[in-house]
Amino acid sequence: MLASVPLLVGGLLELPMGVLAGQGRRRRLVILGGGIVFLLTLLAVASAGSFAVLMAAFVAFYPASGAFVSLTQAEIVDAWPDRQAQIMARWDLAGAAGAMAGPLLLTAVLAVEGGGQVGGGWRVGFLVLAGIGALAWIGTLLRGRPAADAHQPAAEAEEEEQPPWTARAREVGRALRKWGTLRWLLLIEVADLLVDVFTGFLALYLVDVANLTPAVAALAIAVRLGAALAGDAALIVILERVGDLAVLRASAAAAALLYPGFLLVPGLVPKLAVLAALSAVTAPWYPVLQARLYGSLPGRSSVAVTLSSAAGLAGGLGPLAVGLVAQGFGLSWALAGLVVVPVAVLLVPGRGRS
């Protein structure tokens, strides 16, 4: 319940965040306010004395995160409209670093707390996250608006002239009828099947299908996260020299070969080597596709945020679909079906204008 209810209820609460926040000064106030609620939810989780409090805190976390994190992303991307892919690459690198640091933080906290007794270590972990979040909030407050946006001569006038939220809501419907926007929105969720969804099933596949030990499966997860982090770091350099669509197509072509290779290659070392390569080459997918989504809606990043939230809710059916296929036909067949993902990422962007 703690995994599913907050995702659905909190996701629905987050859905209109982009449209209601708009842009300019109003959006910045929503970001700062969302950051405060973000910190309060972490503190509530750390101090929760009942299941109801814990559930309420997790539910509130989603819209708070949408206000603090997603709108910050939109604000930064708006500030550099000609470098959206490069900005998203840096954003994704920060996220990958967090994905690596999170388990290390929990391990350290549990070790200090003496093995993670119930009600002990995990609470300290959330307190540490709240402290880190507070530093991020203070940095956001002190920095002000991104420099490239703050010095635009017409910035204040644009804030006063932005359309009401009802007009922005209608823009969401119009955007969904544009193939130029819809394709990027769909591809983000399709690509995620071979990124986050595949990661979620990876350990189970290695233990139940490849007959490896849980310790080796844990090592494989570490290899995947580390290789993805390296891919994110390399992408920052590559995008300074190569166009984002060229990078996307090359990575999709490589993944179309590497993913079946991972499923078919025998032996532990070859499997881990192919997994590392696959994790590195799929690193460009989210930042490039998300940047393209923003680029398809120039000056309407708030609409892109709302569309991303809606697509994220729909994308939650991805793990369920893979799980149902695995239950009916076996996990190996369920994961084999994901071979169509890199083909879609390779071919769909080529249709229509880029």
Features:
Growth Hormone, Chain: A; 2 domains; 18 helices; about 80% helix
Q: From the alpha-carbon coordinates, what is the Rg to the nearest angstrom?
A: 21 Å
The CATH topology annotation of the largest domain reads as Growth Hormone, Chain: A
What is the straight-line distance between the termini? 41 Å
What's the mean pLDDT score? 86
CATH architecture label name of the largest domain: Up-down Bundle
Q: Helix tally?
A: 18
What top-tier CATH class of the largest domain fits best?
Mainly Alpha
Structure commentary:
This protein has two domains: 1-162, no CATH class; 163-354, MFS general substrate transporter like domains (Growth Hormone, Chain: A). Residues 153-157 have low confidence and may be disordered. It has 354 residues and is an all-alpha fold. Helix content is 81%, strand content 0%.
Q: What is the topological layout?
A:
Blueprint: H1 5-14, H2 17-21, H3 24-47, H4 51-79, H5 84-112, H6 121-143, H7 147-150, H8 155-161, H9 165-176, H10 179-208, H11 214-238, H12 244-264, H13 268-281, H14 285-295, H15 301-315, H16 317-329, H17 331-336, H18 340-347
Helix pairs in contact: 1-4, 1-15, 3-4, 3-6, 4-5, 4-15, 5-6, 5-11, 5-14, 9-15, 10-11, 10-14, 10-15, 10-18, 11-13, 12-13, 12-18
Summarize the structure.
With 354 residues, the chain is mainly alpha-helical.
